[in-house]
């Protein structure tokens, strides 16, 4: 039976439309860091190389190699952490050119450096990308976090952040990460009406 994160990990990926507190364990990711407007072509190219690597691992059995511990699964969704440059923080209105981000796609626990190296080799041969060598494979832990689902335009996210800020204040919590927040994209923005976009918003927090 295929492992589907939407069903098996609802607490992480399908939160309610109001803030709640969770603990996120260690997770493995392909990651790519950058700066600039997410509407630019470069951002799309970076997303593309992450998916190429993720699917290279997902499809290995069909290429004749079955990694130790492999199981059939649905590729995890795109995630990203967001912050602003020092210059960007000086503006009263968001300047997307000053955004600092790390985009990432989670990998199953069976994925090792050996498997990652094979994925890189595969993508380098079949779907070369100028950003491939900038991708890293890392294990990170969000730990104690406040999250909620945001439905609608990305530009309307501040309304949800206000709810999350109030929740943190009411529950004696503060943001601890060196990034402002994380987003998990449950919808394909190219195919989904803007008003129906579903995005998980997450703060990494600790008690004051």
Automatic annotation (TrEMBL):
Location of the GyrI-like small molecule binding domain: 18-199
Pfam short name (any one): GyrI-like
InterPro entries associated with the record: GyrI-like, GyrI-like_CCH_Lin2189-like, Reg_factor_effector_dom_sf
Domain of life: Bacteria
This protein's name: GyrI-like small molecule binding domain-containing protein
